[in-house]
Amino acid sequence: MFKFTSHTIVNNNVCEIYQPLSYFASIWMVAGVMAMTKMNLFQSVTSALDNTLASDPTAVIFGEDVAFGGVFRCTVGLRDKYGKDRVFNTPLCEQGIVGFGIGVAVAGATAIAEIQFADYIYPAFDQIVNEAAKYRYRSGNLFDCGNLTIRAPWGCVGHGSLYHSQSPEAFFAHCPGIKVVIPRGPVQAKGLLLSCIADKNPCIFFEPKILYRAAVEQVPVESYTLPLSQAEVLQEGSDVTLLAWGTQIHVMREVADMAQEKLGVSCEVIDLQTILPWDTETVCKSVVKTGRLLISHEAPVTGGFAAEISSTVQEECFLNLEAPISRVCGYDTPFPHVFEPFYIPDKWKCFEAIKRMINY
Ligand SMILES: *[C@@H]1O[C@H](CO)[C@@H](O)[C@H](O)[C@H]1NC(C)=O
């Protein structure tokens, strides 16, 4: 079997070593060895968009500044390659961007909208939750906008302050009819984005902006997909399950190493990957084994998606729990500027939570 081993260059303290991925192995068994090249996360997003524009003549990409490459460079070169009718700028109006995207998708094309920052997705909230998410249901499946994908940079970046740091996934997780996906690195970003584009439901794809340039991996040049609604166990362990997504998964891996070294505690690390609909089975199976669950995200703790997971897990795994489920999340404040290092759920806060669970 072909073994997938990625070469990872690390900076920003974000460290990642990918496991062999068996689904790639099966793709490569069919296709022969796929061409791979080094990409960081923004380049793997560009590559996914490039594949889509090349293979699907109806695909269009639009948003603020996407024509010249986007503020994070995710659409670099695509207008020159595919023309200004397929990659184009929109007015500065998020409600308009998503409304237009719904129309494009309903009319039969593949619509890929960019919202420049997840913090600015709120003007489009009505279009997403009242129109996109309900279109199929309210037409009795006569019409749908499943070919709409909305991409947006997401999460903290070190200096983003109130309006360039937010993680709004929980707002959308409350809305049946859409999917919400967040990748942790270049290989996942490309495979999951292509799955969102192919999916028959409107999808929101949040890209951790601090990871855009953090690490480089070998990523297949051709198109491939990774399954939605499937969490990935990155490290097996027996004492505590650590659950996160996006940037926070890298913190969890570091915490798992600390717990092993300093406490002799064995942690299982799970990347949820899809927030809605989420993979309850993988998470609950792990908690039945470990008896302890720590969930961590940057978004404020109250009403964050960790609360939903915690509720489901206590329903499903009550008799297996050795300690209360622990949430280490952002505080219930606006995202701060100079106080960002105190706000984020860093490895020390997570490590303390593990100690509390073990000593419970
Ligand atoms: C969505 O895209 C697929 C693949 O291009 C196409 O077969 C389907 O008809 C599209 N859906 C709608 C509602 O246009």
UniProtKB/TrEMBL annotation:
GO terms for cellular component: mitochondrial matrix. Its cofactor is thiamine diphosphate. It comes from the Eukaryota. One of its GO terms (molecular function) is branched-chain 2-oxo acid dehydrogenase activity. Keywords: Membrane, Mitochondrion, Oxidoreductase, Transit peptide, Transmembrane, Transmembrane helix. It holds the Pfam family Transketolase_C. The keyword Transit peptide applies. Its EC number is 1.2.4.4. The keyword Membrane applies. SMART domains: Transket_pyr (SM00861). GO terms for biological process: branched-chain amino acid catabolic process; response to nutrient. It is found in: Mitochondrion matrix. The chain crosses the membrane at residues 20-37. InterPro entries: THDP-binding, Transketo_C/PFOR_II, Transketolase-like_Pyr-bd, Transketolase_C. Heterotetramer of 2 alpha/BCKDHA and 2 beta chains/BCKDHB that forms the branched-chain alpha-keto acid decarboxylase (E1) component of the BCKD complex. The branched-chain alpha-ketoacid dehydrogenase is a large complex composed of three major building blocks E1, E2 and E3. It is organized around E2, a 24-meric cubic core composed of DBT, to which are associated 6 to 12 copies of E1, and approximately 6 copies of the dehydrogenase E3, a DLD dimer. Together with BCKDHA forms the heterotetrameric E1 subunit of the mitochondrial branched-chain alpha-ketoacid dehydrogenase (BCKD) complex. The BCKD complex catalyzes the multi-step oxidative decarboxylation of alpha-ketoacids derived from the branched-chain amino-acids valine, leucine and isoleucine producing CO2 and acyl-CoA which is subsequently utilized to produce energy. The E1 subunit catalyzes the first step with the decarboxylation of the alpha-ketoacid forming an enzyme-product intermediate. This is 2-oxoisovalerate dehydrogenase subunit beta, mitochondrial.
